[in-house]
């Protein structure tokens, strides 16, 4: 019998540890171990990797990651009620699971991880986007992670993989696609979770590129993109007015039309503009 079979079903774990889901903690649990194993497989070959998991909850995805052979899992969980359940998972996989209690937005996990590192999580929706932006905007690239395999509300997942010309295209798409390959790899209906959330969810898999797709200074690119999408309905010459005194010339020098709008500009176009601004 494999270690995963020796552990009780998740419904029983929830019952015996009194883990009724709390909305304030963004708790929508995955209780189908076939599903959590499938998500863990989307993270790639884990056998030589440490995996960072945020929000293990009762441990469904954690068990999937360990059963798929993760070398070591570091799980950060804010809800102390979950710790005894996670201790049982740890006992079933000796020396392969470390659980830190606390807020993932406050804890620096790097001291407890050995590269290569992959991140996999059914993220609490209230902190998911903030964590993703942090992981995509470190001071140095490549980042600490090789890949991110993350559950989001479908609408957020669509913003991550969006292409120019679509309504969903914006800052998140540019941040993600500038330095990573991003793909939606699974779609999940609300009923896949307990309790079911109001919206559908998607798993996004991002692989870090060894270096950014196009050269640009990260701080300047970030400023240009934020300004452009702050007033996404305006033409770039108006939206970016405060960026440089000769912004129309800079736009033309970057190969862009001053009358274009932000959502028409590719990642390559924004990077060209960031370089022009840096040079001016
Ligand atoms: N991974 C579990 C699963 O798939 O069933 C639980 C997913 S549930 C959507 C999100 C989990 O994140 C909950 O266990 C919640 O307690 C935890 N959580 C919420 N906010 C957190 C934070 N700031 N830091 C760490 N964990 C957090």
Mind sketching the topology for me?
Elements: H1 3-6, H2 10-16, E1 29-30, H3 33-42, E2 50-54, H4 60-67, E3 72-77, H5 83-92, E4 97-101, E5 117-122, H6 125-136, E6 147-153, H7 154-161, H8 171-179, E7 180-188, E8 193-194, E9 201-208, H9 218-230, H10 236-239, H11 247-253, H12 267-279
Parallel strand pairs: 2-3, 2-5, 3-4, 5-6
Antiparallel strand pairs: 1-8, 6-9, 7-9
Helix pairs in contact: 3-4, 9-12
The chain binds S-adenosylmethionine (SAM).
How much helix is in the residues? 25-40%
CATH architecture label of the largest domain: 3-Layer(aba) Sandwich
**Shape category:** elongated
In the CATH hierarchy, what is the class of the largest domain? Alpha Beta
Q: Which ions and ligands are bound to the chains?
A: S-adenosylmethionine
| N- to C-terminal distance | 66 Å
SSE topology string: HHEHEHEHEEHEHHEEEHHHH
Q: Biggest sheet, in brief?
A: 7 strands, mixed
Please give the count of helices. 12
Number of DSSP E strands: 9
CATH overall fold name of the largest domain: Rossmann fold
Radius of gyration: 21 Å
Brief account:
This protein is 38% helix and 18% strand. It has twelve helices and nine strands.
Describe the structure.
The relative contact order is 0.11. It is elongated, with a radius of gyration of 21 Å. The chain has helices at residues 3-6, 10-16, 33-42, 60-67, 83-92, 125-136, 154-161, 171-179, 218-230, 236-239, 247-253, 267-279, and strands at 29-30, 50-54, 72-77, 97-101, 117-122, 147-153, 180-188, 193-194, 201-208. Helix content is 38%, strand content 18%. Helix 6 (125-136) links the parallel strand 5 and strand 6. Helix 3 (33-42) packs across helix 4 (60-67). The chain has a seven-stranded mixed sheet, with helices on both faces. The protein has a two-stranded antiparallel ribbon with strand order 1-8. The chain is built from twelve helices and nine strands. It is α/β, with parallel strands linked by helices and 280 residues long. S-adenosylmethionine binds next to strand 1, helix 4 and strand 3.
């Amino acid at each position: 019998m494999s270690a995963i079979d020796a552990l009780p079903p998740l419904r029983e774990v929830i019952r015996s540890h009194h883990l009724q889901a709390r909305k304030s903690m963004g708790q929508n649990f995955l209780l189908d171990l076939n599903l959590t194993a499938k998500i863990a497989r989307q993270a790639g070959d884990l056998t030589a990797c440490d995996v960072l998991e945020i929000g293990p909850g009762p441990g469904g995805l954690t068990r999937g990651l360990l059963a798929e052979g993760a070398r070591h899992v570091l799980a950060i969980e804010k809800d102390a009620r979950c710790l005894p359940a996670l201790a049982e998972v740890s006992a079933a996989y000796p020396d392969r699971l470390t659980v830190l209690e606390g807020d993932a937005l406050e804890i620096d996990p790097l001291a407890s991880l050995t590269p290569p590192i992959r991140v996999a999580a059914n993220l609490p929706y209230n902190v998911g986007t903030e964590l993703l932006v942090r992981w995509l905007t470190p001071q140095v690239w490549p980042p600490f992670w090789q890949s991110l395999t993350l559950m989001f509300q479908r609408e957020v997942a669509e913003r991550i993989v969006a292409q120019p010309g679509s309504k969903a295209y914006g800052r998140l798409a540019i941040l993600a696609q500038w330095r990573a390959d991003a793909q939606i790899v699974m779609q999940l209906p609300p009923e896949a979770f307990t309790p079911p959330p109001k919206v559908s969810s998607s798993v996004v898999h991002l692989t870090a590129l060894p270096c950014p797709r196009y050269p640009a200074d990260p701080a300047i690119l970030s400023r240009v993109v934020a300004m452009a999408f702050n007033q996404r309905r305006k033409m770039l010459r108006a939206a970016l007015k405060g960026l440089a005194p000769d912004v129309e010339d800079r736009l033309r020098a970057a190969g862009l039309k001053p009358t274009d709008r932000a959502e028409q500009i590719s990642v390559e176009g924004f990077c060209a503009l960031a370089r022009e601004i840096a040079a001016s």
